[in-house]
Sequence to fold (284 residues):
Amino acid sequence: MKTLKFSRQRESIKACLMARSDHPTADAIYAAIREEYPNISLGTVYRNLNLLVELGEVQRLHCDNGPDHFDGDTAPHYHFLCRRCGRVIDMPMDHMDELNALAGRYYPGRVENHAMLFYGVCPDCLEMENLSLKEVDKSAVV
Amino acid sequence: MKTLKFSRQRESIKACLMARSDHPTADAIYAAIREEYPNISLGTVYRNLNLLVELGEVQRLHCDNGPDHFDGDTAPHYHFLCRRCGRVIDMPMDHMDELNALAGRYYPGRVENHAMLFYGVCPDCLEMENLSLKEVDKSAVV
DNA sequence: AATAAAATAGTAATAGTTACTGTTTTATTA
DNA sequence: TAATAAAACAGTAACTATTACTATTTTATT
Fold:
């Protein structure tokens, strides 16, 4: 049986994910951890992220074809991907477990779970959109 | 302005996607087209798939970290990924556009659409599961 | 302190996809 | 129908995200 051994790198990766509310990629985590451990290797970050996901201490988010993002909050919840800034943001909306049952009524297979990702423009980018619209108005008046 | 020119390879790729109801990857399409055009290049398949997606004639399906799958049916609908055989299967279930509006009520951003993928065991693999359970029963009795 | 297992850093390799380049097809004009 | 220009091509190189490998270091146990 393979027993888990303590690793300060793994601790640091987990602490990083618990501390931040964005959903960093392996690369972003790598950059952050390097401040404390300047010669941690990217492979170590990936290996430990995979381990933490297996242990259920961290959640992996597949975002289209881009790099995976990671979430320290393991409660099932949905995410929003902003098509402007590319940020991955938590959705303040209950996870709809009942969708599995609903789907199961239409489909003869065994529906166990689902992944959902919303797309659109985040509040910050909406704000910027409005500001630049106003700019256009102004220059039109002048 | 760049005008589109006819290409027999592109026609063949589109025909292939219209004809089959599985959801092949670029590689699987490449293999299929090679029967008719033995020296088509994989790059051509990718380039044309991207083009067809842009033209809205074909749909791209992101499946976790694996290769993308493609669907000749462009009507928005959900898919099911079997964790046994890995097949991507159409869900006979309406696309829930109202989920966008629902999400929008909780989230201050502009929710434009969503992607959902169901996971579980497909009917064929369920069948096999049942058969092997019966095998176990038999040997237990004998 | 000695030992064994696990984890590491660093590097090489892999999968999926895109970019580049010289040649061939397509479509338009002469 | 031949000449031309644009688009697409095949083939290959490059790229991004990730995993695998290896010799060394860290952790934990005896």
